């Protein structure tokens, strides 16, 4: 639970455009928001579950316990069990935790049906527990990170927008979050403790970014689950003490996706051209994030996609992206080869 990455963007950022060079932080933020948009729009085939199961069996080939869990999932999983799998450290939650850090788009696509079902379940649970959730004003999440990451990502972006590119579980009990920080710092003394205090009061519900109360037998163990890549505003950052331990309190405010400033920043993820050709734009974001090898692998995989091969304009974008990557890596022969393809294909529709 402590390894979930964080993406931020400054409140003063202009509309983030795919046509311009982005900072790594802008690209990370937009990448997470765009994946969320794509998964919400995708229609998944009935075989999607089988494809994921087969992949997981390969990943856990030598882990008998995990293979038994995969068999259990194959036989008994239903869409209304998505949140249970997500919150109980299942093999799926572990793979999801990995790929949101490594940006393995192909695996995220395999998980897409599960992410969509968990989001639908959150919407339903919110409606069922609407009266209870409206009585909760603040929830808490503990995290540790390096001092440099904290300074760069959070402290220097007060007033900006923050997102966890995964589902986020937060406790209604502040002590649970602080105890988690204590345990982490006891094992990692070079880190600093961060207490996220999340204000969810009077936030208009957004079905694209649902959150819901997950009830436990003991009310003190109740948690709130936020959907993947929910956006928060960083309202304040201050140092606090807990006994003899120093930590940082980061006050977050849940933001509705219809917030005018958020809409302005992420508008490019909702352009028709992006929806018509999302794969290429994800590849470009990988480049802007500095993930050149991952971007190369992903763009090369698009050259095997019949939907791309049948569209010269899409092929031009892919070859142009590959040429830029090879130019950056000083592999000029490969770069020139792809630029030749750009020219050849462009002449077919100019």
UniProtKB/TrEMBL annotation:
SUPFAM superfamilies, alphabetized: ADP-ribosylation (SSF56399), TPR-like (SSF48452)
Protein name per Swiss-Prot or TrEMBL: Uncharacterized protein
Organism: Rotaria magnacalcarata
């Amino acid at each position: 639970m402590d390894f979930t990455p964080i993406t931020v963007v400054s409140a003063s950022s202009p509309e983030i455009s795919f046509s311009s060079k982005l900072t790594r932080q802008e690209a990370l933020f937009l990448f997470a928001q765009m994946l969320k948009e794509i998964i919400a729009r995708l229609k998944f085939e009935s075989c999607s579950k089988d494809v994921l199961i087969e992949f997981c069996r390969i990943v856990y080939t030598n882990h008998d316990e995990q293979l038994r869990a995969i068999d259990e999932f194959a036989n008994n999983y239903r869409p209304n069990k998505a949140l249970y799998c997500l919150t109980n450290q299942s093999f799926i939650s572990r793979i999801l935790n990995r790929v949101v850090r490594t940006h393995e788009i192909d695996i995220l696509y395999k998980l897409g049906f599960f992410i969509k079902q968990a989001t639908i379940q959150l919407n339903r649970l919110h409606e069922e527990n609407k009266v209870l959730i409206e009585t909760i004003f603040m929830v808490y999440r503990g995290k540790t990170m390096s001092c440099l990451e904290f300074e760069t990502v959070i402290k220097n972006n007060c007033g900006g927008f923050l997102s966890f590119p995964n589902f986020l579980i937060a406790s209604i009990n502040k002590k649970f979050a602080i105890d988690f920080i204590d345990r982490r710092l006891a094992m990692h003394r070079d880190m600093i403790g961060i207490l996220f205090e999340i204000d969810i009061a009077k936030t208009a519900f957004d079905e694209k970014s649902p959150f819901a109360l997950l009830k436990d037998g003991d009310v003190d163990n109740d948690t709130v689950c936020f959907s993947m890549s929910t956006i928060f505003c960083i309202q304040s950052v201050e140092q606090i003490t807990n006994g003899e331990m120093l930590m940082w309190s980061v006050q977050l405010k849940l933001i509705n996706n219809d917030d005018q400033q958020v809409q302005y920043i992420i508008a490019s993820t909702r352009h028709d051209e992006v929806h018509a050709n999302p794969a290429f734009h994800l590849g470009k974001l990988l480049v802007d994030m500095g993930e050149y090898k991952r971007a190369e692998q992903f763009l090369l995989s698009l050259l095997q996609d019949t939907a791309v091969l049948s569209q010269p304009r899409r092929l031009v974008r892919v070859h142009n992206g590959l040429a830029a990557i090879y130019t950056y890596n000083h592999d000029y022969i490969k770069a020139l080869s792809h630029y030749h393809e750009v020219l050849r294909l462009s002449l077919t529709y100019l």
